[in-house]
């Protein structure tokens, strides 16, 4: 038995979590103390091989509280932590809103500069201008 499996015996709080590196890929079991993890969560784990970046990889949780092979010859590694996509999603949404507001302000400033350059009212409306031209013809 690899000594890393002893954590499951010695501590009731250690949970076995089955994860995959890619959809439909081989399943690997990791240790965690985080009882909030659920299938579909992305977590950071220690790893080696082609997916390795600085000794870590992102994997997807497939199963929680799975059975472990206490006689396994391989070691069970720890989950480093959950990837917080909620915060990331909020940041991306806030950035999109900020960009939208900056573009709107930029367009307004350009309209003001253009209106001043050609001597028209800032609130100039092309639609109203065309309507007034039609009325003048009648």
The value of Rg in angstroms is 30 Å
* Form type: rod-shaped
- How far apart, in Å, are the first and last alpha carbons? 97 Å
How many helices? The count is 3
List the domain count as a whole number: 2
**Uncertain residue ranges:** none
Structural class: alpha+beta
Beta content comes to 15-25%
Which strand order do you get reading across the main beta sheet? Answer: 2-1-4-3-5
Write down the overall mean pLDDT: 87
| Number of E-type strands | 5
| Share in helix | 25-40%
Largest sheet descriptor: 5 strands, antiparallel
Q: Helices and strands, in N-to-C order?
A: HEEEEEHH
What does this structure look like?
The chain has about 140 residues and is of the alpha+beta class. The protein has 2 domains: about 5-85, no CATH class; about 90-125. About 35% of the residues lie in helices and about 20% in strands. It has helices spanning about 5-10, 85-120, 125-135; strands at about 15-20, 25-30, 40-45, 55-65, 80. Strands 2-1-4-3-5 form a 5-stranded antiparallel β-sheet, with no helix packed on it. A hairpin with a 6-residue loop joins β1 and β2 (about 25-30). It is rod-shaped.
Short description:
This protein has three helices and five strands. By secondary structure, the chain is of the alpha+beta class.
What are the SSEs and their pairings?
Blueprint: H1 6-10, E1 15-20, E2 27-32, E3 42-46, E4 56-64, E5 79-82, H2 85-118, H3 126-137
